[in-house]
Amino acid sequence: MRDADDKPLSALVAQGWEVIGFTSARDPSWGTHAHHVLLRRQRAHKVLSIRAKAIGSGHVVKEIDL
Length: 66
Known about the structure:
Layout: E1 2-3, H1 8-14, E2 18-27, E3 32-41, E4 44-52, E5 59-65
């Protein structure tokens, strides 16, 4: 996980990743909304998970390679 003060989704799209799916759901473990974006570039796929920090301001971003 990493803190994201920048725009991680925009950065990935600028690198050539294509958004092919998006979901938004309430994360029961943190009590916040979590957004998940499915990305594709050539034959590679990854999920970008974005949620608000439980304490403090900002967001937590996690990239998962599939």
